[in-house]
Amino acid sequence: MSIFNVKSMLKRMKGILLITLISIIFITKVEMNLYEESKRSISEFNRQISNKVYLDIYNGMEKLDYINKYVNEAMNKYKNKYSEDIFLKNINKISSGSLFKYIGIVDMDGYINIGNNENVYVGDREYFKKAISGSNYVSKIIENRLEYELDTVYSRPLIINGNIKGAIVGVEPKEILDKNLVNNAFSDNVKVYIVTSNGSIVLGPKENLGMYRDIILNVINEKRNDGIDSFDKYGEKNVIAYNKVKNSNNWYVISIAPIAKVFTGTHSTIKLSLFTIILALLLYIIIGTYEDIKNKKELEEASYVDSLTNLRNLLKFKLDTKKIILNRGKNDVYAVVTFDIKNFKAINELFGYDKGDKVLKMIADNIRSIEFENISGRIGGDIFALLFKIEDDEDFEKKIEYINKHVTKQRHINKKLELNIHIGVFKMKKECIEIDKALDNANKSRIESKNVGDKLYYLYNDELEYKIQQKLIVERDLKRALKNEEFEILYQPKVDINSEKIVSAEALIRWKHKDVGYISPSIFIPIAEKNGDINLIGRWVIKEVCKEIKKCKVNKENMVPIAINLSRVELYQNNLMDYIKNTIKRYDISPEYLEFEITETAALNDFDYINNRIRDIKSLGIKVSMDDFGTGSSNLSNLKRLDIDVLKIDMTLSIDIEKDEKTKSLLKAIINLAKEYNFDVVCEGIESREQVDILRKFRCDMIQGYVYYRPLDICKLKKVLKENK
Question: Which residue in 687, 630, 681 sits closest to 655, CA to CA?
């Protein structure tokens, strides 16, 4: 045995002796404190059950409060058409047992109705009497008279316009209350009861209650709310824990535990554990030293290997990559590539996680068989990484194409399974860069590759870094920017194609960040739509536009209708219509001065819902336009089903009408179709008089574009409107 092993063994023995001594002292202390600890455990156990019962009662009463509110709303809404039977039938159907087993209303004569056209008398029940006297009440387990089953009944006054008109009751199955005891079982030997202040049992093992009744009544009669005591019964040491249930009908949760039975075997287990510890430690001395040397190398190797694929893990990939980069030639260029599997989550869900693991292993095998020199690894989930040297751009393209084709090659996984990957690339050129940064840049490119359509890969560039920084700035500063008035509105006029007078204008939001200057709406609007901030932005625009229209009204200045863009996210806000109505009322403006624009994608992806929203807006006297028509993949025939007033044709359909006959024919057909549906037509992005002349022949109504006006601030818009008068 080597000196190293002897020293290691002696060191272990000293530690073991010390641990053994400490264990003996500790176990002795544990035995001394076992009784007190058991009392605390049972007390905490009982308190948790009491809290659970309280929460159930509280939640039940909250539900009844909600029902009472809903009754009032229904009566106010339907007035003489209100039907209690229909209301109860519907709410029980909607609830489907999620609120209560069923919900009923008891009239002042004591007859309960649950919406099934049957009235049963419950006027003699305590829960009814308590409710009509103005109190909330939870019954103990009683036989209900509707199904003759054992249930708990929650009740509260039915208050209509400030007056008690009966009771609202919710019936809970006995099993719900049972779960509070069953699910929180501490031990089979612990008896748990829920009792009333007079000792009447609400829930618990009735066959054992008699022997403990005097003790329970003594606790209740002394009006103690929470605590724990001990007592001797038939020669056994017992612990009794009690907690009064908050906001109940003087209910108590009581747990009674015979210490010897609940904790039987604990002492012998402790002693056996001590012996086992000593024996195990001795064996560890013998085996441990031998295994130390044997496993040392294996542990080092395992710490660098991905356990599923046997490729390098992230740590090993970075270490090996760093060595190569530090020793590369002056003009050597390396590519760091990361890729993940498209829709890998769906593969796991559809085919199972075992199949998903097989896919990862297959890709690892494919990577190992790549024909050019590389460093490869699995760096997380379904993400793989490669490092390889490239000679020139042509060599780089060939290798990326080879990787894409080679690593997704099927090897008897599933014929229906088609594998594709997202590839991100960072080229490490002459300048020195940390491998962590290089890998991070490749990962950023991989994520961006998911947004670039059919491109085989995405190569990291300054534009991506700028985009990422902009995204971080938007997510961090957007709400603050609203508070600090960093946003402004510009107005781009819409010009009547015949009179060449301004007849409307579109409100365009701009963000001048206090540190980085202007941030394009094409950057911050999509981010705001994803995180919900678009609602704050949209409502700010509505308010500011209404405010400017109000100023023009007060100052007797010329103004035209202003069009405001509504995103898909905003259209799904339940209180959108209320906000629009309240803002119009607040600024005392005519609805005719507002117009809302929705995108083609929003309108046609959820047709019925959006069309209903369009009708709601039009009912206020506000026109609705479809914006960006031609950018989506819509069917022209869907237009006839939309209740819009104006069709705005995107500039992509008119950009080359002077030169391309197909474009000209398509645009003419769309305008003719729109006219058949009685839509006004606006063409966006018009920049030349020649385009205007063509569109005039096609009977286009309005033009929006630089040929007439760029976006103007409110002062310039007012000036132009005054000159156009």
Answer: 687
